[in-house]
Structures are given as C-alpha cells and as structure tokens.
Sequence to fold (281 residues):
Amino acid sequence: MAVPSGIAALLISSFLLLFFLSSPSSANEGNILVTGDVLASDSELSVDNAAFVMQSDCNLVLYKEGRGFQSNTSGSSTKCSLTLSDYGQLIIRDYQGSFIWSSKTRKHPQGQYAAVLQPDGEVGIYGPAVWSTPLLFSNEVKTAGVDVKSAAGVDEKISAAAGNSAPNLLLSSGVLNVGSKLASRDYALEVTKECGLRLTKSAHNNTVVWESPISSYSSSAAGENCFARLNFHGQLSILDDNYGQLWSTAAAAGEGKYVLAVKINGQATIYGPCIWTTAAE
Ligand SMILES: *[C@@H]1O[C@H](CO)[C@@H](O)[C@H](O)[C@H]1NC(C)=O
Ligand SMILES: *[C@@H]1O[C@H](CO)[C@@H](O)[C@H](O)[C@H]1NC(C)=O
Fold:
C-alpha cells in the first residue's frame, strides 16, 4: 500500500516523538545505565562524590573533584536524553530523536553494555555482558517508583569489597565475603555459609531467585570463610579459605576491568572489559 511520503514522514516523526516522550527515565540503579535504559533530560547518575548529569541544556557533564568531563553539547537542542547502544556507545539524542553526540569508541561486539559511575568518580563503559543470572519474568521491573531505601534494605550496612564499595557493584579484584552482599532495590546477592552464591528478592521474604550449584566438597569442608571474587578476565569465583576454587562462572574472557552489577530487574550480570572511561578523555 502506497502512503504519500509526506504523510509517512509525519507519521514516523510523530511516532518518534511519542516514543521519546513516553520513554521511562529508567536509569537502572542510581550509578549505572545499561543498554536499553534512558537517562532523561535533567536526570543523573550519582555516587557520593560525583554526578554524571544529562542537563536540560543538552550538555552531558561529569561533576567531580578534580578533572571532570563534558560532551560540549550545551545549547545543541532541548530535552536531550542519554542511552547506551548495543555496541557500547553513549549516545545523546534530542526530543525528536536527532543525533547530538556519542562517545568515541572503536567497533566492539554487539551485546549488552553498562555505563557505570564508579566509586572513584569516573564513568566507565563495560561490556558486552559475559555472564548473567537468568532474566526473571515478573512485573517487578515496573516498580521503579519505589523508595530505594525502604524497599530493598539498601541502607543496611553493606560491606562490599573493600576499596571499591558500591552497594550494587563489584569491580575486578573486588571480594564479597560471607555476610556481605550486593543489593539493588528488591534484590540482593550474597555468599552463603554453605559457600554458594544466592540471589534473593528481599521484598518477598527473601525468595531465592537464583543460586549457584553447591558442591558436596564445599558444603562439608569449606567452612564459613568462603568468599567470591571477580578477576580481570570477567570470572566470578567462589573460593575457600585456601583459595581453592569451588565454583566459577564461564570461561575467561579477555584481560581487562570487569564489573558485576546487581540490577533492579533481578539479574546479576558481569560486563566487561572496560572499553571507555572519562578518565582517558
Ligand atoms: C570539551 O571541550 C574541552 C575544552 O575544549 C576539551 O578539553 C574536551 O576534550 C571536550 N570534550 C569532548 C568530549 O570532546
Ligand atoms: C512473608 O511471610 C509472612 C509470614 O510467614 C507472610 O504472612 C507474608 O504473606 C509473606 N509475604 C510475602 C510477600 O510472601
């Protein structure tokens, strides 16, 4: 069926307009933007000492102590939003969907990426995803309006890896001990006394949504001093007190910096290596 091209263009542009207007401003947890998320105009990722802001003037700015970063796109358009492509590029588009800016990265494989405002105040792009717990089929992803603190116990004392603590992230070389956990709103990932990893939904009486297989060795001999560690090849392992490996995620990927993120949709995902950082811009 032939549609006059003027009308088609109008339809397409109003569809785009509708699409961009109705996009939820769903940055994942406050410090991470994954492929598929939208950081709307006037919103930000933030950690204690830094903020990565998609400003209403269309400039993308990292505010931190010392050297920051900006896209230098102030005044380019209005109602700009930030997304992360499935090739790992940060992309700014305006309210009409017109391209404004993207981060310069070499061609990387298609997949799921994550832009992380790290505890050190720099933004890193990690990916593609090398491992993940299964996607849960639930409506819970829609509970984006919940008060983060009351919902997930995120404000409990969470002693994640020393030196790179963020309640929902574990970076390469980071360690998760028994009794500490990573958490994002409703979901928490922890190392159990039985030397397993367990992902639970805290708002539902700690329903277990995923669990690593527990070997007979680990439950009998490993004791209570196991820990999980993310290495520089993107592998998350459970180790006993003698560094004996009890379990590990998939085969090693290329060397680099990786990040394990517990996300608000109930998935724990490992992204990496780091392919871009504001520190190098
Ligand atoms: C923005 O402008 C500053 C000053 O000219 C420059 O140092 C910086 O590299 C620019 N940022 C980008 C992303 O190009
Ligand atoms: C949690 O457990 C309590 C007591 O066992 C029960 O009354 C409540 O309905 C449970 N809540 C959910 C969300 O399963």
User: Anything to note?
Assistant: The pocket of 2-acetamido-2-deoxy-beta-D-glucopyranose (ligand 1) is lined by residues 70-72, 281 (CB under 6 Å).
